Input
Amino acid sequence: MKNRKSQIQMGESVAILFIFFILLVFGFVFYMNVMKGSTKVEVEENIQLKTIGIAQRASFLPELQCSEENVRRENCIDIYKLEAASGLLKENNMHYYDVFEFSNIQVQKKFPEPEKTWPLYNNTLTEYKNRLSTFIPISLFNATSKKYDFGILIVEVYSK
Amino acid sequence: MKKRGVIELHFNWIFVLIAGAIIFAFFITIVNKQREFSEIKSSGTIITNLDSILTGAQVSTNTVNLISMPKVDIGFDCNRYFIGPVPKQTKGNVIFAPDLLKGREIITWALDWALPYSVTNFLYITDPQVRYIIVNNSKDLGQEIFDELPKEMNKELIHKNQLNYLKDKNNYKVKFIFLENITTNDGLSTFNNMFDKDVTAIGFPELKDSDIITNTGKIIFYQKNNNEWKEQISEGMTETFYLKKESLFGAIFTADSEMYNCVMKKAFKKLNLVSRIYSNRSSELGDYYNKLNNFGCASAHSNAANQINKIITDSSKLSENFPESDITTINNIKTSAYNTESGIWAHNRNAQLFSCALIY
Output
């Protein structure tokens, strides 16, 4: 009789422990899901920050910026530098990967017509999760005619 | 009957012990994992924010920023920086910084490195807790360096005869800047309580009797070795060089000669790339003006292109082999850039006189 009572008591204890662990696991899974959600938001924020950083670096690149007596003009790209940089960035893809990572950067002349596109850097991912684009309005300076055209610097950043 | 009761009682205790241990281990594991995770997460957040701050600081030249930070150690080497276990690439940025920053604030300072056209912005990073002691020369050049360095820095200007009166202010790093070869160990005993690696110095031998910061010169890095200064050796050499005052300031901020040389190699690589663009541009413009029979502008640009091509050759060598055994290549770059008759600077002036497109 006593033996049976103990066995029942034992069974109760094991059942309590089992339920306790199940509740614990549920709690943990719930907590992990909440954490995963907040990490996802943070990862997205980081991708956006990275995109802004790359766009900022592209628009302040001394290889492209207009200058007069070495005074740099913001949001202005020298067309002669642009022509040269277009080939140079391609040749030195490895060096510029450190700066632009997985992105596609190009300059488009919008006005006056005809429109023209200068591809600057292209190192994209075939399979990607996010592609964030930044469009920066810029002036395109022609050093010989001393005239300005209107264009856009397009920076597309890819991430997995 | 009594014996069975004892066994039952023991078994209950063992059961409670095992179950308790399992629960205890479970919670310890969760807390540990969570701590590791939150450490990595907070380091990642700080490093992402720092990266944005550094990018912003780098694109705005001649600006000083004092940035408040959480209490974390930031380690720097030539190509990366670390917060805790999280590393981040410097991404082609030219950053001069001590190997470790511990303070709650960091100072960032950006300057344009131009030869004579803008090449890149040098970014200098330090901490108000790092102490810089500038030992003046006879021509008071130390005052000029003192004034040019950001006022937010923990800097002081002394004369050589004041070295023995220095007090240890419990800074975690101390750097001496001598405007000559170091010939004395005076003042070093003050910092006996500090690790040797935390007390360093640099000497600029050519500035001994100079009242201006020359465009090029030698640098010797030293480290405390008990009570005396010991020259640091990098790439088998004790000497290295600076090109323009921006790189001289770089030597003041960098941890050691190895890091300085590595960062300068990156700077010369960038000089090489930017020069190739200017060379291409000037060749194009030279051809353009030739077709218009505007020979004044054509020669300004084609002569400039020749000088730029020399810089391309020299910078290519230095991006691989800096510092070379002597200063010749560095001086060649300076000549190509600033010679008053044949340098790029002179051709730019000519281009301006002939009202042509400027070289830079």
In short: The longest helix of chain A spans residues 2-59. Residues 2-159 of chain A form one domain. Chain A touches chain B through 41 residues (CB under 8 Å). Strands of chain A lie at 65-68, 71-78, 103-111, 116-123, 130-142, 147-159.
